[in-house]
């Protein structure tokens, strides 16, 4: 997989560079044509018509192709969401390997591929793809920038790269992010702080963190409550620990979650304390 992924990302990188080059060339050629055609004695109206035809025909063909490619990438995302990972991988790899005018679609395909690799537990490959996405200009795609950093930090924590995960998360704290991203950030941030031995930071602003956890899906809410309970356990705050542990067990069985996140094993092992 690693060798094929390297080739795929190399193709993706070259196509993104080519796409930026084509955009600049189109601007330069348009400006040159606007200057040259009137000097050749062609009336301004005819100049505009000739330039328009020269640009619209090839651009139209590329746009149709790009639209089809975007639909394929969208299909890959749908297949990923319903758990058909092999089919989703085939569609997403096709989207990454074929040229399109839409850099946004290519970047979305790469991000979806990183998510797929995480679902498969292939975190080293997920890290590679996330880093490639973050090398692209994402000024107009802040949601992609935020989500990719969250995925990257998640995989880095699983791989035990604590300092790199910290460096990945740090820029997110300096920008406003939507509620959905805050909900994804919270359990990742808690895992980082507990792994780093900073239970005090994990248990700070506890009411706000609990309110955010209550907005999550059941498994994420259970994990977040259990992580907060573990922070309180380390700080000998038994009343809050028991309350949060009980809430976590109400949301989801902690046994399967603890097998994936060893940080909450002490809470899962203690059972539901009333």
């Amino acid at each position: 997989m690693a060798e094929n992924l390297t080739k795929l990302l190399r193709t993706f990188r070259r196509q993104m560079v080519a796409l930026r080059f084509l955009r600049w060339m189109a601007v330069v050629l348009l400006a040159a044509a606007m200057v040259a055609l009137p000097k050749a004695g062609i009336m301004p109206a005819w100049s505009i018509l000739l330039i328009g035809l020269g640009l619209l025909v090839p651009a139209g063909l590329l746009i149709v192709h790009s639209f089809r490619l975007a639909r394929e990438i969208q299909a890959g995302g749908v297949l990923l969401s319903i758990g058909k990972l092999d089919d989703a991988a085939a569609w997403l790899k096709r989207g990454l390997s074929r040229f399109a005018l839409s850099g946004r679609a290519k970047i979305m395909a790469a991000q979806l591929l990183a998510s797929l690799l995480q679902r498969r537990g292939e975190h080293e490959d997920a890290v590679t793809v996330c880093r490639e996405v973050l090398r692209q200009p994402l000024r107009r795609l802040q949601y992609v920038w935020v989500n990719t950093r969250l995925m990257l930090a998640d995989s880095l924590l699983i791989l035990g790269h604590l300092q790199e995960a910290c460096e990945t998360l740090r820029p997110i704290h300096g920008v406003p992010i939507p509620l959905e991203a805050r909900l994804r950030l919270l359990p990742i941030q808690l895992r980082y702080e507990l792994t780093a031995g900073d239970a005090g930071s994990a248990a700070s602003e506890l009411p706000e963190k609990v309110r955010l956890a209550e907005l999550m899906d059941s498994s994420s809410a259970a994990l977040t409550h259990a992580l907060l309970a573990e922070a309180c356990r380390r700080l000998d705050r038994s009343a809050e620990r028991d309350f949060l542990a009980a809430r976590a067990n109400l949301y989801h069985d902690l046994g399967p979650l603890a097998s994936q996140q060893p940080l909450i094993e002490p809470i899962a092992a203690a059972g539901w304390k009333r």
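The CA atoms of residues 186 and 224 lie 8 Å apart. The chain is about 80% helix and 0% strand.
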